[in-house]
Amino acid sequence: MKELLESIAKALVDYPDEVSVNEVEGEKSLILELKVSKEDMGKVIGKQGRIAKAIRTVVKAAAVKEDKRVVVEIIQ
């Protein structure tokens, strides 16, 4: 999951070196914290949050195979 989110985010931003993903794992859930540079925040979120929603959808679809619940948080 972490690698998937990282590769998607790096493809979207201008500063891919500043992209980092932190995993916080629970029993049945996994929280992925995505950090990008301040300038790239708009590119990851998108207009009306559409890109962020699409990223969350892709990651959740990949998580279904592992029977986990995944939450993607975008952090400054």
Notes on the structure:
The protein is an alpha+beta fold and 76 residues long. It has a single domain (2-75), classed as K homology (KH) domain (GMP Synthetase, Chain A, domain 3, 2-Layer Sandwich), CATH 3.30.300.20. The protein contains three helices and three strands; from the N terminus they run H-E-E-H-H-E. The protein has helices spanning 2-12, 41-45, 50-63, and strands at 20-25, 29-35, 69-75. A three-stranded mixed β-sheet has the order 1-2-3. The longest helix has 14 residues, at 50-63. The two termini are 20 Å apart. The mean pLDDT is 92.
Number of strands: 3
Count of all domains: 1
- Give the fraction of residues assigned to helices: 25-40%
CATH class: Alpha Beta
The secondary structure category is alpha+beta
Separation, N- and C-terminal Cα atoms = 20 Å
Question: How would the global form be characterised?
Answer: globular
How many whole angstroms does the radius of gyration measure? 12 Å
Strand portion = 25-35%
